[in-house]
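Sample intake sheet
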Amino acid sequence: MFFFCSLQGSVGYQRHRITLAPENTGNLFGTLPEKDDGRILQRSKRGWMWNQFFLLEEYTGNDNQYVGKLHSNMDRGDGNVKYILTGDGVGSLFLIDENSGDIHATKRLDREERAIYTLHAKVVDKRTNETLEPDTEFNIKIHDINDNEPKFFKEIYFASVPEMSDVGTSVIQVTATDADDQTYGNSAKLVYSILQGQPYFSVDSDNGTIRTALPNMDRETKENYQVVIQAKDMAGQMGGLSGTTTVSITLSDENDSPPRFANHTFRLTTLESAEVGAVIGRIKANDADMGRNAEMHYSIVDREGQDMFTIITDQNTQEGLIRVKKPLDFERKRTYSFKVEVTNTYLDPRFIYSPNPPFKDDAMVRITVADVDEPPVFSRNPYIIEVHEDTAAGSLVGVVSAKDPDADNNPVKYSIDRHTDLERLFNIDSVNGTITTLKALDREMSKWHNISVVATEISNPRQTTRVPVFIRVLDVNDNAPEFAMYYETFVCENVKSGQLIQTISAVDTDEPLVGHKFVFSISSSNPNFTIVDNEDNTARILTRRGGFSRREMNTYLLPVVISDNDYPIQSSTSTLTVNVCACDSRGNMQSCNTEALLSAGLSTGALVAILLCVIILLMIVVLFAALRRQQRKKEPLIISKEDVRDNVVSYNDEGGGEEDTQAFDIGTLRNPEVMEANKLRRDIIPEMLFPFRRTSPIKDNADVRDFIHGRLHENDTDPTAPPYDSLATYAYEGSGSLAESLSSLESGATEGDQEYDYLSNWGPPFKKLADMYIEKDIERET
């Protein structure tokens, strides 16, 4: 049987259990073995058995901390017994003397890290390694000491409470925790207290709830408070550890302050020309509240101010904006005085009936209207005038009137904006505003004329006013009625007498007041057709006889006279064209063409013959045109294959041939050194003369010659050079150049003095050119 012995003073008050166990077993839990029949066996030996050690945390000694001793009654003291320890921390935290059974802790233990360690012990024979005591479990429990101070979850808490709150209103609850053992002593029993923030706030010592301690705390007086809360363990006793936190408490705004005008009289000045809706001034009331509680509403109380002005609130600045409601007139009224009242938009019922003054205020507003030089004002705007369309040019149309509204009453002059009267149909008297016609008006062309009349102060032409004048042209019966549309009328050859062939109607561009009434008639002597008026501005055309024939007459022209009933009566004659057509038995038109009668006499063979003749004639014409075109072809410009030129320039201009000696001298183009004088065309008079530059008297320039020979040698030896000759045309050099002009237009007058033998020395690229000119030179000499 195991004995667990501990010398720690802290275990003196622990209750020890005494159990009995047989010698060959190590029963540590005090249970008595039973036989199969349920009878309890009697033990012959007794012993002590503890299954738990207690060890204080945070040991500060220099040696290993003694935990306790294990001892078995199988140990006879002869050194043959070996104690073996296994479990949590064995080897690193706990060591056991295998001979004596003493257990030591090698490190300082912290209960907050781990409170209980579970270990297993057994006893074996050193010689035979036979188990003398079975594996027994026991615990090492770490006793707590007050080594941890309380800690709050946050270093700084933020909270708010409405201003003017009642005493005891909860603000926030702050909680601290202590890592010490909650079940052992008072190491973790906390008490809360307030170190800073009195007398405004208090704290519940048990749960850390902060509450208001003073009534009527006003945000407008003080808004922010810093409260320091302490939590102390050991139930607040002396020697306990403590921790603190800061709580920032803000008084939230309530609508407990009414708006107030700092100045109860406002003076504003505005021009009489201020437009309706224009802002002419701002007034401001102050409200100590903030946000929604500081929003204000302004209103005009007096009737005089309500008629002429309005006031609204600027939502950004909470100012009252005074705007013009009706046009101002300095000459009619120069000053206005009225009262403006301000109230909060949102009211709190708790403070409306408080002892404080009512939640509104008022102020007087005085507005002075300043005079400005105003433009003329018309008596009406706009003008609507009516005039008949038969009014002669120069007739009166109407009169407009304007005057200067200022006290000076300066005279005005009138004019018509010609951009609104491009046809110049009207004129206006600049003095009295009388509008007259310049041309006759036609309602059928335009029923309305919209012009603008401008009134201008004579003393200040910049002051002008426009007014629209709408002139309505009244109708006069000056147009005759006519057919409403073009009618395609036909009559069948087999028609009977009295049969309807067409219903006609008329239109009139005039607009009589009583509406249109047209009368239709035709000549009573017409033997073919008659007309019946339907009395609804339409008429029916009927046949007077039957038996029409296209061979006799295929078209009839029927004059119809149409008259209106207005004054003066207008009438016109419209012609109705009636075609004679072939119809079936039901009266449906089949054919109205007279050509059909002619085609009936031609056979199919005749038509084919005519078509062939036409085709033959077309072929002859095409053939003749092709021959003429072939004859007009010209001979080619180059016939000989040997006459090859790299560049051919063709001008669409025919010269005069060899006999043309009045044009340019060809010698000028050949010898640039024999030009003696300026050569001009001799066949025409030049429009402009340009002075020619005289050539340099230097005949031979060694630098230019060497340069040309050098370039010539480079091209002769260059395998990538093109095989053909190239001709470069240059304009003339400046007058001071030693290279002289390179233009052939300033060459000598004759080519007889020019020698071309040097061309044969220029190499293969110039062989063709040398052959051409040397042969010509030889021919000229022979």
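Comment: The radius of gyration is 66 Å. The helical segments are 303-308, 349-352, 595-599, 604-631, 702-717, 767-781.
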